[in-house]
């Protein structure tokens, strides 16, 4: 196979990997957008149905509508009895109430500043992405766990032992699984460059299909398409602990020298990590499940904490669009931290006397208007 043909396959593999991950990401965004559209559209429909029921009830003959002027009190028995006259509010009043209820449900003035903050974060992401595409340098702090990928794969190759990659136990509708597959692309590329085998057991059939595409594309991109083997990416079972039993058994039999755990994990995290530790493997884990992070930190050499897992794709790929989006999100987080610190400072200053009414006024503006709290 000529070098030009390998370069063509490499470019095609790189584009196919990116297209696969982008397709999954677009599908998730479209699903979220559809949920928002349905939620917004349901508000006026709910208000209209409620108003229609009210109008129909008021216009039904023989159904009394009691008002405050129609109530008479009997001093002897304190019994409330409605009068015989029935008052029916005009239809235009019900229509006005319908419009007011619909407007109040569609837009709340108390959430105006929340809208401003959301728009500010969105614009920061767009601006940072545009700047990154124009060639501006985006700094991403070094992440030790991602820098150690090459070291771990190289160590496994020197020892003549395979590499294990576990993409979590959830399906592709979870963002952590998608983030784990982006890390799998880099691990598979490094393994293919060293002509080593990467074993990827999956707990979902759809994840298996996506993982096979990612590994195959990574092998072609590395210029070693013959290294790819379909049997290295296998579907085990949807059952949590049955899946863990198979992975742990394979770990004890094959004794991988490098283990990667990237995705969403639950009670099986410590079982997997302890088995990898027992065979002397270098282990790199990453998850956004805060309840499982202590187990990975205790039993793995490197751990991606929370959002470091989601930043791994931008860190490893270096694509301007992902780097710009990452920078814009960081600006949004900085804004949230600034508001948090400002609130803490103002609530502290309010406790001191002699500073005048200004701290209290600023606190009320921040708490009631900007944050929309009652």
- Topology pattern, helix = H, strand = E: HEEHHHHEHEHEHEHEHEHHH
CATH-derived topology of the domain at 149-300: Rossmann fold
What is the beta-strand fraction?
5-15%
State the helicity in percent bands: 55-70%
Low-confidence stretches: 1-9, 42-48, 65-79, 83-87
Shape: elongated
How would you sum up the major sheet? Answer: 6 strands, parallel
Q: What is the CATH domain class of the domain at 149-300?
A: Alpha Beta
Overall pLDDT level? 80
Total DSSP helices: 13
Terminus-to-terminus distance: 70 Å
CATH architecture annotation name of the domain at 149-300? 3-Layer(aba) Sandwich
Number of strands: 8
Keywords: Membrane, Transmembrane, Transmembrane helix
Transmembrane segments: 27-48, 112-132
InterPro entries: DUF6754
Protein name: DUF6754 domain-containing protein
Short structural summary:
It comes from Planctopirus ephydatiae. This protein has helices at residues 3-59, 91-106, 112-133, 144-147, 149-159, 175-193, 205-221, 240-254, 269-278, 293-299, 307-317, 320-350, 358-370; strands spanning 71-73, 80-82, 163-166, 198-202, 233-235, 258-262, 282-287, 302-305. With 374 residues, it is an alpha/beta fold.
